[in-house]
Amino acid sequence: MFIAGCVANVLVQSFSYCFPGFGEEGGAFKGRHFDHSIILLRVRWYLAYSLSLRNLEEMVAERGISVDHATIHRWAVRYTPELLEQFNLRKRSVSRKWHVDETCIKVRRRWMYLYRAVDSNGDTVEFWFSERRNLTAVKRFLNKALKRHGRSERIVIDGSQTNREAILSCDAADRLQERSRHDLKPIRIRQSAYLNNRIEQDHRAIKRRIRPIPGFKPMVSARVILSGIEMVHMMRKQQAKYACNRPLSPPNSSTDWPRETCGWNSPLSVVIENSRQSRDPWVKAQNGLGDGAKGRERVVETGQYGGKARQMRFVLVCSL
C-alpha cells in the first residue's frame, strides 16, 4: 500500500508540476471542495486512460470519495487549458520535416475534423479541431504551427489538394512577411499516401482514448478535452522539459546519467534515467541520491516503462 501511495503521489506531482501556484492560497484551486491532488489525479485519469466519466465516478467511490461524474467533467474543462498553456512553455523543439493529416471526430452526431501534424521522429508538432474540412481550416492550422515552431523544410501529405493549396498559400504569405535579407527556400511538398503512415498510426492513440466516450456534446468542451488528450499523448512521448537536468553519477563511475526530476525538493520525487543514452548497469537502490541528499532520502521503488524506441527507467525517491 505504501508503494502504491507513492506511485499515486508521483503521478500527481508529475502532472501538476506544470501548474502554476497549485495548492497555494489564492491559487487556481481556491474555493474548491476537494484538495488539488484529488482534482488533478482525476483529470489525469480522464485524459490519459480509456475511461468514461461514470467509470471514474465508480473508481473514486471505491476509494471513499463521493464525486459526481459531471463534477469530474467540469474539472477537466476548467483546468485542461491552463495545463496545456504551461505545457507549451516547456515543450521541446521539433524537427523540420512534418507529416500533416486530419482525422474525423463525431460531435453531436456530426463529423468534425482534428487536424494534426507530427515530425519525422513521431513527436506531435501541432493540432487544431475544426467544424469544417476546407481551405480556411487548413490555413488556420498551418499558420498556428508555423508561428509556434517556425518554418518547415518538407511537409508530407496525402492526396488532398486542399492541403496542398493551403501549404502553398501559407508558405507564400510567410515568405512575404519575412523581414530578413536572407532568401527563404520554399517548403517542399511530398504527396504520398504511404509516406504518411507515420501520422496515420499516431492517430490511433487519440482514437483509442475517445472510443469509450459516448459522444461529445458542446463544441467548446470537445475542443478542450481533445487538447488535453493531445497534451497527455505528448507527455508520453517525452516532449516536455520538466526537469532540472542535473547529472547523476553512480558511485565509482565516471559516466553521468541524464536525470529529470519532477520537483526535486518536494517530499516525493521521481528520478528518470534515459537508457538510450546510458549503457551503465541498472541503478541499485541505495540511500543518498543527489548532492547533499545523503541521510535524508531513500529509494522506495524502481521500475521501467516505454517501448523499444524509448526505454526509460525510473526510481522513486521518498524524503525521510
Q: Characteristics of this structure?
A:
five-stranded mixed β-sheet, elongated, alpha+beta, 9 strands, disordered N terminus, Nucleotidyltransferase, domain 5, 8 helices, 320 residues
What does this structure look like?
By secondary structure, the chain is an alpha+beta fold. It folds into three domains: 72 residues, no CATH class; 124 residues, Nucleotidyltransferase, domain 5, CATH 3.30.420; 61 residues, no CATH class. 38% of the residues lie in helices and 20% in strands. It has eight helices and nine strands. The strands form two sheets. It has a five-stranded mixed sheet, sandwiched between helices. Strand 6 and strand 7 form a beta hairpin. The longest helix has 21 residues. The N terminus and C terminus are likely disordered.
Strand fraction equals 15-25%
User: What is the strand tally?
Assistant: 9
Name the shape in a single word: elongated
CATH level-3 fold name of the largest domain: Nucleotidyltransferase, domain 5
Label the structural class: alpha+beta
Terminus-to-terminus distance: 18 Å
Largest sheet, spatial ordering of strands = 3-2-1-4-5
Largest sheet: 5 strands, mixed
Can you count the helices? 8
Judging by the overall fold, what is the CATH architecture of the largest domain? 2-Layer Sandwich
